[in-house]
# Entry
Amino acid sequence: MIQRVRVFKNFKEAEKAEIQDGISMTPNQRLKIAHSLRVRVFGRRAVDIRRYHKLA
# Structure
């Protein structure tokens, strides 16, 4: 994922750009971001709750 910095004149412009970025992402891109956040917060050894419930 490419990280970039953008500067806006006000909060409203920044909010519009953030919404547009979310709309333009593919579902795969959203999943990759969610996975990287989960790893960052809980670590690589965290149990994926979806897999846990499939085993039960």
Q: What stands out?
A: The chain has one domain: 11-55. The chain has a mean pLDDT of 88. The two ends are 34 Å apart (CA to CA).
